[in-house]
Write a structure and sequence with these properties.
631 residues; mainly alpha; two-stranded antiparallel ribbon; 26 helices; disordered C terminus
Length: 631
């Protein structure tokens, strides 16, 4: 079985190494004598330094503490050992006692994550430039403009699971500085006069007082915290200089506001270091910004600013009430439209999905746009109505407009407005029945069980397979029979290759269960004149027939799904990729979500109230080479 390392992990911190004697995973087992020999005997032949199959080298994990480098990987090792998927068929197998020893040790070691084995670390987010969406939304709320100047900025980078708000991918190329300057003028020219000039002089000698009042109003909002000494004075110096050089009162004020819009204090979400050691709570204003950019992708509003100023925002009940308010607010739709689209990858319909017009003449730009809106509408409803997140896997309803309803053969829907509709059968439900996902995971002229299965593993369950070997021959681009074999039979032949079997054993059944949906998500009963075979056998041994039964089986993995969703949303909320020290937080939030009936509020509250969301540190924890730890 091939394992895959999701992302590179830094070395364990010095504090962890110092605490090593307390990390013994099992009182009766020693890592060096009881566990490491089994790993070397059964695993490192395929996953070692000489042959790192799937990019995994288990020989790097030589000491007990080293297992904490990547708990997600070792969760996968545990699962595959426990379910007897690893070692693969045809390879030497551990005895039942050896397998029990391995699984028991790994489980106990990982459980130490929940008992202080790793010191709490909120992580360090690099200085965070406003993304294009955040910039547009912020100037909209700051000046009341409807223009979107950041649409002409260079594209934002993707990282941390594909999100475009990850701080260390938001670079500042030279051309962006030019665009910032042009955007500042464009914004001030488009801003309503009454929105800018909240104070008007009634005579010439009162002009400086009015200018100062305007700056005093905008500086705290633009910088998202109280004005610091000298900041308004520096803007007044610009204003005075402009007036001396012939600018009008209005022009002088805009000169100062232009300086605000190109200031790093506006363009970046800056959090101030504090003269303390270790993690410390962020300020109330920093909490307001983290909250607003998480839920709104924009600056805090007046209510958040007032609560931050009074100190009440950090009160747990007040904070939860604000989360409810913000999720229900119209600006709360931004979370669904940004997070859900990027997590589910449906925004790629604009670039990657190219159904062949001859094969799928019904795929129009209008249909594509409606497809992209469906998962957003569903996710938005789960947040506003505090519904179960499991509806993303299986539901008896969806949201459609007339275009999408016609595509799904749902009668009685007219007009462009999206509305909730119930399904008359159980074939379609959750994101797996959505045209956006089904089209995205198809080729131009046929469906792809492999792409669909990979999408389920990667986007829903967070267990992506490794990339295929470079020598693997691809299947045909259409679903016509070849040499008397259907596409399904060709796929089974392909899966018989030992180099491909282990991964396709997991992927293919998931995709085959969706074969009743064609390349653009319409229901079909035949393929090339033969009845659709949408049956499958999961790697766990469970069989199913069709998409409805497949979704029911996926619900058996609801905790895996919730953990993956928690990881994705926590990364999005923090604006950084997750690291090994985030694993206890992910587990804690996931358990809380399950305990509260998988309600969306439990996920949002869990993230907002989490240690990494409400704390920060000044410098990265010092990393050292690991020291051997022998119980």
């Amino acid at each position: 079985m091939i394992l895959r390392l999701p992302h590179s992990i830094q070395l364990v911190c010095a504090l962890l190494a110092a605490a090593a004697p307390a990390l013994k995973a099992d009182e009766n087992l020693a890592f060096s004598s009881d566990i490491l020999p089994l790993v070397e005997q059964y695993c490192t032949g395929c996953h070692g330094s000489k042959r790192a199959k799937g990019g995994i080298n288990l020989e790097q994990f030589r000491e007990l503490t080293s297992l904490y480098r990547d708990p997600r990987l070792w969760e996968t090792v545990f699962t595959q050992l426990n379910e007897r998927e690893m070692p693969p068929d045809g390879k030497p197998q551990p005895t039942p006692e050896e397998r029990d020893r391995l699984t028991r040790f790994i489980r106990r070691t990982l459980d130490n994550l929940d008992h202080g084995a790793i010191p709490k670390d909120p992580g360090r987010v690099l200085i965070h430039r406003l993304s294009r969406l955040e910039y547009n939304n912020t100037v909209r709320d700051l000046f009341g403009v409807s223009i979107r100047p950041a649409d002409r900025f260079p594209a934002d980078g993707g990282g941390g699971g594909g999100f475009d708000n990850i701080a260390d991918t938001l670079f500042v190329p030279p051309i962006l500085m030019e665009r910032f300057l042009a955007a500042a003028d464009e914004i001030l020219d488009a801003a309503p006069v009454d929105r800018i000039f909240i104070s008007r002089p009634d005579r010439a000698d009162s002009e400086p007082a009015s200018a100062s009042a305007i700056f005093e109003h905008f500086v705290p909002r633009a910088y998202r915290r109280p004005a610091q000494p000298g900041e308004v004075d520096s803007l007044m110096s610009l204003y005075d200089s402009g007036r001396r050089n012939g600018l009008s009162f209005e022009q002088g004020v805009k000169l100062g506001l232009r300086a605000v819009l190109i200031s790093p204090k506006f363009l970046f979400r800056i959090e101030e270091d504090q003269p303390v050691e270790g993690p410390y709570p962020i300020s109330a204003y920093e909490l307001a910004s983290r909250l607003s950019y998480f839920l709104w992708s924009s600056m805090p509003d007046d209510e958040l600013f007032k609560l931050a100023a009074s100190g009440n925002l950090t009160d747990p009940q007040t904070l939860r009430a604000q989360v409810r308010r913000m999720v229900s607010d119209s600006k709360g739709a931004t979370l669904a439209s940004t997070f859900a689209r990027q997590w589910l990858r449906v925004d790629e319909l604009n670039s990657s999905a190219k159904p062949d017009p001859g094969r799928y003449p019904g795929f129009t730009t209008e249909l594509r746009d409606s497809m992209m809106q469906e998962p957003v509408a569903l996710f938005r409803s789960l947040l506003v109505e505090d519904s179960s997140l499991l509806d993303l896997i299986d539901s008896d309803y969806t949201f459609v407009d007339e275009t999408l309803a016609s595509h799904y053969a749902i009668p009685g829907v007219t007009g462009p407005e999206f509305r909730r509709v119930a399904f008359s059968d159980n074939n379609r439900g959750g994101v797996l029945g959505m045209g956006a996902v089904l089209t995205l995971t198809s080729y131009p002229r046929r469906t792809s069980p492999v792409l669909r299965g990979k999408w389920v593993l990667e986007q829903l369950l967070g267990t992506p397979p490794p990339p295929p070997p470079p020598s693997v021959k691809s299947l045909p681009g259409d679903d016509k029979p070849r040499d008397g074999l259907t596409l399904r039979q060709q796929l089974e032949k392909h899966r018989a290759d030992p180099a491909c079997a282990s991964c396709h054993k997991k992927m293919d059944p998931l995709g085959l269960g969706l074969e009743n949906f064609d390349g653009i998500g319409q229901w079909r009963s035949e393929i090339a004149g033969s009845p659709v075979d949408a049956s499958g056998l999961l790697a766990s041994g469970e069989s199913f027939e069709g998409p409805a039964e497949l979704r029911s089986l996926l619900l058996n993995q609801k905790d895996v799904f919730v953990r993956n969703l928690t990881e994705k949303m926590l990364s999005y909320a923090l604006g950084r990729g997750l690291d090994y020290y985030d694993a206890p937080v992910v587990k804690e939030i996931s358990r809380t979500v399950a305990a509260h009936g998988y309600r969306s509020s439990a996920l949002i509250d869990g993230i907002v109230e989490s240690f990494p969301f409400q704390y920060r540190r000044n410098q990265p924890v010092t990393r050292v080479e690991e020291q051997k730890n022998e119980p």
